[in-house]
Design a protein that fits this description.
This protein is α+β, with helices and mostly antiparallel strands and 81 residues long. The chain is built from 1 helix and 4 strands. It has a domain at 29-77: Signal recognition particle alu RNA binding heterodimer, srp9/1, CATH 3.30.720. Strands 1-4-3-2 form a 4-stranded mixed β-sheet, covered by helices on one side. The radius of gyration is 20 Å and the shape is elongated. The termini are far apart.
Length: 81
């Protein structure tokens, strides 16, 4: 078996990196909540705080696996047991 002498090159300057530390549309502080009854929590955040549902993924059993809301950018996941 032969191995090549190829080296992995890395950016030499910070300016060479094109990944933003904070994704577009997010704030520098984004709360992440794990709650039982995430569907009811989402309904509450929408009605009480005027949050907008950005994305929602349900699990195979119909519970919320992941959701993103925009107002205070809240993510809700089903709590693992």
């Amino acid at each position: 078996m032969r191995f090549s002498n190829t080296r992995i090159t890395r950016p030499t300057k910070l300016a060479d990196m094109s990944v933003k530390a904070i994704p577009e549309g997010y704030t520098s502080l984004t709360p992440f909540l794990c709650v039982d009854g995430a569907s009811a929590a989402i309904d509450f955040y929408v009605s009480a705080f005027g949050a907008k549902l950005v994305d929602r993924m349900d699990g195979p059993d119909g519970t919320v696996a992941h959701a993103e809301l925009n107002s205070a950018t809240v993510a809700c996941n089903r709590r693992s047991r």
